[in-house]
Amino acid sequence: QRSRTSGMMPAARAQGASHAGRIRVLIAEDHVLVRRGLAAIINMEEDVTVVGEAADGEEAIEQWRRLRPDVVLMDLRMPRLEGVGAIKRIRAEDPRAAIIVLTTFDHDEDIYAGLRAGAKAYLLKDVQPEELFSCIRAVHAGEAYLQPKVAAKLVQRVQEHKLTEREEQILKLLAEGKSNRGIGQALHRNESTRNRERKDPSP
Question: Which residue pairs from 171-179 have beta carbons closer than 8 angstroms and sit at least 24 positions apart in sequence?
Answer without folding.
Answer: 174/115, 174/116, 174/144, 175/144, 176/144, 177/120, 177/142, 177/143, 177/144, 179/91, 179/95, 179/96, 179/118
